[in-house]
């Protein structure tokens, strides 16, 4: 990248050299449409279903939702980006498109490496003890067994599930929702991700854990990753992200420094 | 943020070129077959750990725990023996019906439960798939391994029954090992196939029990295979002869039992069919599953 700078700026060599920023996620006019089964309603009788099978037409109770309608932005290495917007504005859908879990209808999403999406409903094996889930989760992220053994105590310690006695050896179905969310975040945060997508995952923990996880997010970022954070808790966006994208009805309403965007967003939601 | 436009000479580029210049990949693209296989190999520890975890979890709520691994096949065999051996008198003209029945039952059950769980491999693990990124073939492969471990429990029961019913220990017993390994490869391929089918067509779960039951009746599990040759027209018997499940069951019966009725007279031919099925299904299932890799977890 230094070569490139030297080539393009050969006239202005006196300018201080600023490192070129490296993009990790490029979203180019992305449209995401997903199909939902409405269930129950409509002509769902056996006869109608049979007729659909014979005529090979698609079920009428499937509706298309155009959740993201042409979003364009570039995220760089070392950035933490907050995604805010009212319910149903397409934040989670956009994250899932970046993670490659939803196909884009039009446009494109380019990413460095494989982004990891960390959501509240990321389920592990509920019948197994927390410890065992940590091992499984780490192996599923591609760690070697030796590495997992080394990280295991750290992850349990970070999650804080052992603060009220030895919960790590109890099945995860006995955990409170906050505890399992904490454990899931701790597992995902144990690995250095190129791009980490966090969907409301920090909201369930208590205040103490939130502080710890915010520190961890900052650390992940410093190690040259990019972090996306979807949250309705503006304070946690303010504390972790310096850039914020505000989505409204599937479109970018504002993209800029967190303080400015949050101010406009708060004015918008209060004015309603 | 104002100085960033100055600092970034690439910002003037259209997004697609910017992405290309920094070597970014399109999100959710399918890896090549070679790199996919490499990834899968690196995840081998995850596959075995997941299989063991599933096995442990399946008994975690039962008081007797892992003892069920042996109790379930035993009870199964007892029920079928009661109906087909004692009530329907299928054992009339056979030397050792109870061993014949259990061999068929356990071998068939290995494939049956692999397929049943396989249809749920993707659709039942959406949380895991959406949260973590790993080659998805890990899931159907882990199911095959879990079922293989269950089969080992069943095989101990089977060998005990075979010995208790007075069969001698012969060198032929060694044939059981390659036969089961071939069946395991066949199962892995089949499990991957139904995993992809079940990921899209959720109705498959409702249809599968009927398909599997038909398959069981066509594999000569519960009655003498001689009934096929006696009652079916020639062409239908020929089809049944190439039924992979019948072939794997016959190999197990030949290995363990003396004077057992067989549909396939030629042992080398039976082996050829068994190898053929395991290669075709194993490779075919793997390719078919890989081709859908980028779609799992969507929707």
Automatic annotation (TrEMBL), chain B:
Keywords: Cell inner membrane, Cell membrane, Membrane, Transmembrane, Transmembrane helix, Transport. It is a multi-pass membrane protein. It is found in: Cell inner membrane; Cell membrane. The keyword Cell membrane applies. Pfam families: ABC2_membrane. InterPro entries: ABC2_TM, ABC2_TM_bact-type. One of its GO terms (cellular component) is plasma membrane. GO terms for molecular function: ABC-type transporter activity. The keyword Membrane applies. Residues 64-292 form the ABC transmembrane type-2 domain. The chain crosses the membrane at residues 67-88, 138-165, 171-195, 269-289. It comes from the Bacteria. Belongs to the ABC-2 integral membrane protein family. This is Transport permease protein. It comes from Micromonospora zingiberis.
